[in-house]
Amino acid sequence: MQPTATMGYTDSERRRLGLQAEIHNPFTEALLRRAGLSRGMRVLDLGCGIGDVVFLAAQLVGRDGSVTGIDVDERALDHARERSQQQGLRQVSFERRPVEDLAFGEPFDAVIGRHILIHMPDPIGVLKRAAQLLRPGGIVAFHEYDFSLVELAYPPSPIRAELARLFARFIPAPNMGARLYHDFLKSGFSFPQCQFDGGIDGGAGSPGYEILAQASLSILPRAEAAGLRFQLPRDPEELARNLEREVVDSMGSCPLPLSVTGHARRMPSA
Questions:
Q1: I need a surface site. Which of 23, 166, 171, 176 has the fewest CB within 10 A?
Q2: Among candidate residues 45, 136, 132, 133, the one with its CA nearest the CA of residue 91
Q3: Cα of 86 vs its chain's centroid, Å
Q4: Which helix (H) or strand (E) holds 84?
Q5: 74-102, pLDDT tens digit by residue?
Q6: Per-residue pLDDT tens digits for 205-255
Q7: What beta strand segments (E) does the chain contain?
Q8: Nearest-5° angle of CA 209, CA 211, CA 212?
Q9: Looking at the DSSP assignment, which residues form a beta bridge with residue 142?
């Protein structure tokens, strides 16, 4: 059940995660609040990357709580640790381990993640492991993309449409957002609540252009090796500039991929 590292483990990918957090953090924070994260809770973040979701959770659980982030990218974890020290967050910790290695001594009050299940070959298996880590009544909360529900730019942007086609064809679980409610139930959780969330941007200087360009070029070589063909520049800066020009010249929009935020609780018998 180890993620396929769809976007890779590179400096450009870590930069993309930082830019992405600027847009998604408000939606993720709202999810964690709806899910019921509160002071004193013990929380696990799956696939924590450079730590943005860990830091959101840490503010909610306070100094009496704790948040552990796990990831397989050691350089991302080093960056997360440095950021946590800068913020004085003593209640957070980071461990290098794959999602399949979820052996912890004490149960958690919540298991959370952002854009992690979509990269898993077996999302339900991951959720079942999460259930085993939770105390009865514990919370699971995930923020996931859905590339099967494509929000195209308006007026039409051919580059944006080509990027949407790439994501939909190559992501392991492209419909993760739409299936999140179902997968919660199949994994033994009760009372799932899910909703659509996402940003629509445009204009000059939007970080969305670079986010989309970096993400697409991280997976483009492997997509083409699998026999898929796309008409996209191979330089991320050129691709971002072309997308920006296309959107700005048409006074158009550039939606980021649609997201679903959802949470549920562990049933007592799970």
A1: 23
A2: 45
A3: 23
A4: helix 74-87
A5: 999 999 999 999 999 999 999 999 987 77
A6: 998 999 899 888 888 888 888 888 888 999 999 999 999 999 999 999 999
A7: 42-46, 66-71, 92-96, 108-114, 134-145, 189-197, 200-201, 254-255, 259-266
A8: 70
A9: 113, 262
Measure Cα distances from 233 to 56, 99, 106, 130, 240 in Å: 35, 34, 49, 40, 9
- Which CATH code, of 1.10.150.170, 3.30.230.10, 3.40.50.150, 3.30.70.890, is assigned to 11-266? 3.40.50.150
- Bridge partners, 66 (sequence order): 42
Among 29-38, 100-109, 203-212, where is mean pLDDT lowest? 100-109
Q: Is 262 in contact with 140 (CB distance < 8 Å)?
A: no
Q: Copy the structure tokens of residue 161.
A: 């449409």
Q: Where are the chain's structural domains?
A: 11-266
Closest by Cα among 77, 183, 81 to 130: 183
Give the Cα separation of 183 and 126 in Å (integer): 10
DSSP state of 12: H
